[in-house]
Amino acid sequence: MTLTALSGFWHPLATSDEVTDQPRRFELLDDYVVAFRDENGVAAFRDLCIHRGAALSLGWVRNGNLVCPYHGWQYDRTGACVKIPSRPADAPIPGNARAFAYNVQEKYGLVWVAIDEPRDEIPPFPGDIFEDAAWKSFISYREVWKTSAARAVENFMDFSHFPYVHEGLLGTEDKAEIAPYTVEKRENGLHYWLEQEEPSDLYGAGGVQKVRYEYTLVVPFTIHLKKIELGTGRETFITQFTLPRTSKTTEVFVFIVRNHSHDQPDSKFSDFTNTIMEQDRVVVESQRPEELPDSLREELHIKVPDAASLLYRQRLASLAKVDVFGPYGA
Ligand code: FES
Ligand SMILES: [Fe+2]
I want to staple 99 with a disulfide (CB 3.0 to 4.6 A). Which of 7, 45, 263, 267 is the partner? Predict the structure, then answer.
């Protein structure tokens, strides 16, 4: 899918504490973004000065304005140039002297950026758990993978690799067969679930137990996995927000949000998840091409186990085709 089709979605740029009054460069959709914070919050621009193309991220913030490091032009948080120091103070500033200001918001402790007018909200959690004290959240895993965002998401959606990539942790080879499951199409993504016995004693609930996995995909690149321990009823979200830095490099932010074990250290949960993510990373970085093929005729799809991934590919393909403000496709 083309990168321009993605410019109308919110993307997770960084954690909130990484954006300060010192402008900083980030990578998004094969380009650079500069983000900074003043007393009014976070602002984000294309990391490029309209005058001579210098990187604004080398500049600094003065009185709430971003100062270009080259000739000192100053941009307010809307991107308007408010000062050209080499001109008389009363000389008019051309209206097209502007930085390319992006839409920016903070949510879940992350800074989110949409390059164009956002066509959708910041990816929601199923339920308002993030504001609910019954749930405790932390970022468990964050890495840059040498792959596309779509490959990284499709891997997270896929469970037929459990007996191979996560042997003994999420699956065993004697239970490789996938029973038919239903994928529900939603306006903003997909939803499906399955149940299985998880071979590991992940959360110390006492040996092997049956777990229900509920997957909720929010297009383009957010995937929630809600794990429900059927014995104890405890629930844990493992959520991947995915930043398409370039068409072949992707930063993954994996949150763990749980409604139990608040007294336990987060590391008890992150160790397991991070092991899984690293196992995934090795295989996913080996996939060629790095981007998902544009056509469903490429690669081979097996009807039952690849049902969710097929619908994901179709959805991405339809996003790439429709007008930015058009309806979601099939
Ligand atoms: S390049 Fe930015 S002020 Fe000249
Ligand atoms: Fe995996």
Answer: 45
Strand order in the sheet with 60-62: 60-62, 65-67, 74-75, 81-83
57-84: per-residue pLDDT in tens? 999 999 999 999 999 999 999 999 999 9
Q: 27: CA distance to ligand 1 center in Å?
A: 21
71 pocket-lining for ligand 1 (C-beta < 6 Å)? yes
CA of 159 to the centre of ligand 2 (A): 7
Cis peptide leading into residue 220 (ω within 30°):
yes
Residue ranges per domain, the chain? Answer: 4-114, 129-321
Q: Which residues contact 4 (CB under 8 A, 6 or more apart)?
A: none
What pLDDT digit, counting tens, does each position of 187-218 carry? 999 999 999 988 876 655 566 789 999 999 99
**pLDDT tens column, 128-176:** 899 899 999 999 999 999 999 999 999 999 999 999 999 999 999 999 9
* Ligand 1 pocket, mutate which of 46, 65, 73, 81 (most atoms under 8 A from CB): 73
Task: Give the CATH class of 4-114.
Answer: mainly beta
Task: Indicate if the pLDDT at residue 327 is higher than 50.
Answer: no
Q: Check if 87 has its Cβ closer than 6 Å to any atom of ligand 1.
A: no
Domain 129-321 of CATH type 3.90.380.10: yes
Å from CA of 150 to ligand 2 middle: 14
Short-list 82, 305, 77, CA closest to 194: 305
CA atoms within 13 A on the CB side of 103: 14
